[in-house]
Amino acid sequence: MASVEANGITIEYETTGEGEPLLMVMGLGGQLTDWSDGFIDRFVAAGFQVITFDNRDQGLSTEFDWEPPTQTRAVLATLVKRPPKAGYLITDMANDAIGLLDALGIEQAHVVGMSMGGMIAQTIAIEHPQRVRSLTSIMSNTGDRKSGRIAPSIMPKLAKMPTPNRATAAQRSVDMFALFSGSHFDPSEHLRRSQISVDRSFRPAGTGRQTAAIMASPDRTPALRKLDLPALVIHGLMDKLVRPSGGTATAAAIPGSRLLMFPDMGHDVPEPRQQEIVDAIRRNADSARPAARSSSTSRSSSTSR
Known about the structure:
By secondary structure, the chain is α/β, with parallel strands linked by helices. It contains 11 helices and 8 strands. It has one domain (2-149, 203-286): Alpha/Beta hydrolase fold, catalytic domain (Rossmann fold, 3-Layer(aba) Sandwich), CATH 3.40.50. 39% of the residues lie in helices and 16% in strands. Strands 1-2-4-3-5-6-7-8 form an 8-stranded mixed beta sheet, with helices on both faces. Helix 3 (90-103) crosses helix 4 (116-127) and helix 6 packs across helix 7 (187-200). It is globular, with a radius of gyration of 18 Å.
């Protein structure tokens, strides 16, 4: 792993493999280590150079210090359709990703985003279309406040979960993901990976700030309708955190996009479906226009896992 100064912050990143650049954008509260090794290895075998990174306020990237709204205030802001105050927005996080590509000397990349990362990936494609060869949005939504909302059945359960500390955070993550993951969810494996993440970095306030950024960011639907690039939308029919309507709305908004939905997938990327997902992303990437010639040499170096 390494770090660069980009968009005014420090971004921790890792590159793996050789081939066409594939930028993978993690979701809310996640770190670059939350992408499973097996998933990354499949992309490398498919001919990509995989770039993973910590979003701002998570992992080893820059941590901010503004106070996020309380959960109660965030809910009230949603009910009255008044966005909460936020020190940064999804567009700032998209600019972080572009700053990383700049620092690595990468002119264009295929972009894949998961959950909040899907929102960031969509925004990269909207605001920096010349930098994106293809787009994949996984278990995300358009930000229209109507589609892809959390299932009411799990809201009380999430609200009752105690505030995590470093000692309880990994098990709390297991309990939380059990509510909205698919039928292949493995609690012991999730606990193992969650503990790795907690040991590396523990930033619950950062998750609150990222949540505020999501809620304060505008609807992307009108801008998504203007995209002109190969786009793939992936969603799980068992997803209760971002319900499947988020995926269908995203696919409906992006002209010519393909929608791929899995009946046994929730708000996770289950191992039994990973190869199908990689194959679909590879096909989407193959339909992109020829890559623009890079104006500089990449300063990234491949790392082995």
